[in-house]
Amino acid sequence: MRATNLYAPTLREMPSDAELISHKLMLRGGFMRKSANGMYNFLPLGWKVIKKIENIIRDEMDKAGGQEIMMPILQPSELWEESGRWAAYGEEMMRLKDRHGHSYSLGPTHEEMITALVRNEVRSYKQLPLMLYQIQDKFRDERRPRFGLMRSREFIMKDLYSFDKDEAGMNISYEKMYKAYGNIFTRVGLKYRPVEADNGAIGGGHSHEFTAISDAGESFIACCTKCDYAASDEKAELKAIIPENETEEELKKVPTPNAHTIDLLVKCLNIPIEKTIKAVAYQTEQDELVLVFVRGDHDVNEAKVLHFVENARELRMADEDAIKAAGGCPGFMSPIGIKKGTKTLVDLTAYEMKNAVSGANEVDTHYTGVNPKRDFKNVIVADIRMVKEGDACPRCGAPFTLTRGIEVGQVFTLGTKYSEAMKATFLDENGKDKPFVMGCYGIGVGRTMAAIIEQKHDENGIIWPLSVAPFEVVVVPVNAKNEDQLKAAEKIYDELREKNIDALLDDRAERAGVKFKDADLIGYPLRITVGPKTVDEGIVEVKIRKTGDIKLFNMDNYLSEVLKVLEDL
Predict the structure, then answer these.
(1) Which sign, positive or negative, has the C-alpha torsion 523, 524, 526, 532?
(2) CA distance 139 to 222
(3) Residue 132's closest CA among 145, 118, 120?
(4) Are 109 and 80 contacting, i.e. CB atoms less than 8 angstroms apart?
């Protein structure tokens, strides 16, 4: 490819509407352009990177036994109604109707479609195990699309689904995918960590997120400082923090005027925040009230709370009327006095507290001397709080550190969640109908591209790993109008291509400085400069983008030297 024919409109200034460096550099480097909120056009450079990432994914999926297919993006509502997710999935699902009034969605995920496909075709255990995957656009109506490809409304995903005859087979498929994901993210050059994760709306059993370590990440991962335990902040298991033993005090009501927040309560009573119990009230899509209580300095983990609420996908802050109808008082709540039958969750640590302070369900009034084990009735006690820096690892007790990360992939065990709901069965060795035991495995292709840039850039632009670079080498004649320089550059360009090196010839009639800046901005791993020394002395200059090192090679042996440099990248 010659740069005079390449559609790569670079920008000199940082785009004002972009926040993350990956978003800024993809716009500046001519990799993509915004078409609408949360939607982007990929230009040739960006699409080349996407295809190289996809090809690495395909290679590892195929090696692990996956077979590539392609399913429709448009999905009929009937399949989602079979699984029970049509109503439950929420507002992120983009729904539409055809001219006949039939309801469809633009696929946010494909569990229903693949289950329907396989149940119609696979009838015997002899056809198992089976792993089918696709690389395709997905659609989710994000409330706040932002950060470029990190959180968009249309995005490219690789999704693979495994079908096995039993749980043991599912676990084997899971391990194959877990290993393949490690290979993929290593090959694309990411520094990553697999962490235990929550299954969320997908459902099923256990799960791991593959998280690219980056300060730009929206999520935190908790990593033990001693053992190898790591989990997303939503999934991290926490044990109760046991306070020092105290003699139980009598439960008393005390006036706390205007102390309707934890901070105001601490100031009002002049007590440490660790002695307070915080209340948070939610409602589900079905308007069920859910009351949650944690220690005053802790935050509620909504993902954990959802595990205790049937048929709910998301939570919203509760209406005052709903709280009052259950016997509660907004700003001054506790489980004491709440109507029986109200779903009330108390965190493990809050339940162990001694002589704490909590609301009295009366305006401007709190209880002191609260001992939850004695005073809280009809509550569910569970780990429902967010992890904090320094919390104890559930495996070895050493403290956690929190690190930001970008989720680039996730693997799930689904079990029979979808096959049972959709009556997808096969005949086992004894001729009996059994539901398929399934797994689900996704990679965000565009998000992986963005994560690579977040990890690999400098003040001049992107530093692509060789495996996914839009071009591996750019050949730059200092003066493309100089016939001898251009001829020498074309010779090098042709010889590189003969060696199957993905090369670009920057034959534009631009100043050398402009071409050098573009080369650094776009992030080609190697830049070969052809100038007066090449013509007069047979010397070419080779710059390694990653290190900034510059090497001088003689035209007689430059090719073998360049091949060696590329091998080391």
Answers:
(1) negative
(2) 30
(3) 118
(4) no
* Packed helices 21-28 and 445-455: angle between N→C axes, nearest 10 degrees: 100
**Residue 295 burial class via C-beta count within 10 angstroms: exposed 0-12, middle 13-18, buried 19 and up:** buried
Q: Are 174 and 166 in contact (CB under 8 A)?
A: no
E strand residue ranges, 166-306: 192-196, 207-213, 219-224, 230-232, 252-255, 277-283, 289-295
Q: Binning pLDDT at 50, 70 and 90, where does residue 13 land?
A: confident
Tell me if 421 sits within 8 A of 443, measured CB to CB.
no
Helix (H) or strand (E) segment spanning residue 60: helix 44-63
What are the residue ranges of helices labelled H in 166-299? 167-187, 262-269
pLDDT interval class at 200 (50, 70, 90): low
Pick the CATH number of 252-382 from 3.40.50.300, 3.30.70.380, 3.40.50.450, 3.90.960.10: 3.90.960.10
Measured at the alpha carbon of residue 317, what is the angle toward residues 290 and 273, in degrees to the nearest 5?
80
Rounded distance between C-alpha atoms, residue 362 and residue 365, angstroms: 5
Residues 271-278, mean pLDDT to the nearest whole number: 97
User: Would you state the structure tokens that stand for residue 360, as one six-digit string?
Assistant: 């009295």
> Looking at residue 205, what is its pLDDT?
62
- Output the six-digit token pair for 115: 């289950």
* Domain-wise residue ranges, the chain: 3-236+401-453, 252-382, 471-568
Q: What CATH number has the domain spanning 471-568?
A: 3.40.50.800
Report how far residue 310's alpha carbon sits from residue 487's, in angstroms, rounded to the nearest whole number: 71
Q: Are 220 and 402 in contact (CB under 8 A)?
A: yes
Q: How far apart are CA 424 and CA 319, in angstroms?
A: 41
Give the residue among 84, 149, 113, 191 at the shortest CA–CA distance from 440.
113
CATH 3.10.20.880 fits 3-236+401-453, yes or no: no
- The CA distances from residue 62 to 65, 125, 188, 207, 408, in Å, are 5, 22, 17, 22, 20
Beta strands across the sheet bearing 277-283 = 316-317, 277-283, 289-295, 343-347, 380-382
Task: Give the rounded percent of residues in the chain with a pLDDT score beyond 90.
Answer: 91
**Total length of the chain:** 569
Residue position matching structure tokens 């996730």: 410
Tokens found for residue 44: 């040739």
In angstroms, the CA 450 to CA 420 distance is: 37
